[in-house]
Amino acid sequence: MKNKALIFNIRELISRDELPAALEQLRNLLDNSPKLDEAILQSGRFQYIRRQIRLGVVSHAEATLTQNQIRFGLLDLLNEIEEDGKTLLPVELAENLITDKNQWVKSLSQELLSQGVSVGNRPSDVFQHFGWMIEVFLQKMGTSAGQERSLRGLSFMTEAFQNSLRYLCYIQVAQIFQLENKPQNGTLAEFLQLREKQYLDFDYLNLLLLSTDFLKKEGSFVPEIHDFVAELLDTQSDLYRTVLFLDGHRRRLLENTIPEDEHLPTLLDEYLTGLIFWLRQISFLAKYRLVSVKDINLSYRLGTSKKFVHLYGELHGIYSTADSSVEEYNTKSIEGVFTYNQSVLLFKGSNVATCLDNIHDPTTYLSLSPLLIDQSVFAEKPTQTPEIFYFIGSGTSTRQYDFAQYKNELAFGDRDHIPSNKFVQVKTQNNQQPKLDELFKQLELVFKPFKTTRVGVTQTHPDTKTTQNK
């Protein structure tokens, strides 16, 4: 009872923004506990950011963001203490679990309708509104393998969550790339220089908070993300608790600490319920369309106006693989203007043809490349369909960039190597795919202003005995 009262008091201190007192009481609570080191680390981070503020070397916005991250960490730690290491769903969701295999699709459909989006009756008609990176795992959840009460079935759900979080980050980071004053930040630099498999457990939630903080809602390409993040920062919200649950169990899956026992079916129902709640909160993505622009050709003759013929593929609705001899790209002739060539673009609007008609206004689309690339654009094939890969880091070399296929499954436990998973390495010289040479140059040019912060160098701060990456 004494611990419960102390935990309640710490929560109250955090809610009143009295972090020094909250940290002091937390250290008293965790005295002689294995979790004490984590409390000391958070205390060190807080003392360090206060010193940076006094010295005037950090902006108010960055200081506020760091303190919000500390609050997240403290509340997450309190949740673990209360639940003996477990992260639970919000009570309202836990009391209304989705157990019907069709109910979750209907729930997504109703949410899309409330967004003013036209939705078909088939599950695939619903899923396609979320775009390839999310859609593919929603499709997998509906397969026989996805319906099994197994860890693989859980992994399909964890990757639907992870890919949607990654997608939100890419949208925000792509806008940061275009800022005139390039921000210098360790988390952003770390993201651009991830090594080997670090992307699997990289903190994309932190990157989303950070990147959104760098952008103003007014003029932001997807302003809905700002409202979404604002709710996420409310530690009393169901969204906040749900994200902790979804992310926490994905990490447990990666750590191979979820047993396939009699408790797994309940966890699967809980995870599905939390995932659908999360997807409903980001259903605003249905108001945007992903398009791969493979090529742009000029059509121009004496006495006529210039027309740019765009060869493009829409990245909503999975293409059929039954006939590999067909090239799944469309053409659109546009007078006088053109978009980015060999790029994956995000358009405002749900109809691609109409979106392309409006490209005279550059605020109607955003290039997500080089974070997202269409591998088929760089391949030497007679017939092709779009094949999207997403950026995952620098692999084993500073002169290399790695990309993973959008439908790669999560490698965990004894499934640490999945033959069907595909990756693309972009190096200085790419003998098998020479077109990737230009992509490498683009990556170097776009990423360079943000990689000045050295990643992986540890520095001991005078306020704490722990070390941090800088």
How are helices and strands ordered from N to C?
HHHHHHHHHHHHHHHEEEEHEEHEEEHEE
* Regions with little confidence, pLDDT below 50 for 5+ residues: 453-470
Number of domains: 3
Which structural category fits the helices and strands?
alpha+beta
Number of discrete helical segments:
18
Question: Helix amount, in percent?
Answer: 40-55%
Radius of gyration: 23 Å
Largest sheet: 5 strands, antiparallel
What overall geometry do the principal axes of the alpha carbons give?
globular
Query: What is the topology, as strand order, of the major beta sheet?
Result: 3-2-1-4-5
Q: Quote the distance from N terminus to C terminus.
A: 41 Å
Q: How many β-strands, per DSSP?
A: 11
Residue fraction in strands: 5-15%
- Average pLDDT over all residues: 84
Question: Can you tell me about this structure?
Answer:
The chain has 470 residues and is of the alpha+beta class. 46% of the residues lie in helices and 13% in strands. The chain has helices at residues 2-15, 19-29, 36-55, 60-82, 91-94, 103-114, 123-127, 132-141, 144-147, 151-177, 186-192, 204-214, 224-232, 238-254, 264-281, 352-357, 375-378, 436-447; strands at 288-299, 307-314, 330-335, 343-348, 365-367, 372-374, 388-393, 400-405, 423-427, 458-460, 467-469. Strands 3-2-1-4-5 form a 5-stranded antiparallel sheet. A hairpin with a 6-residue loop joins strand 10 and strand 11 (467-469). Helix 2 (19-29) packs antiparallel against helix 3 and helix 10 packs across helix 14. The longest helix is centred in the middle third of the chain and has 27 residues, at 151-177. The model is unreliable at 453-470 (pLDDT under 50).
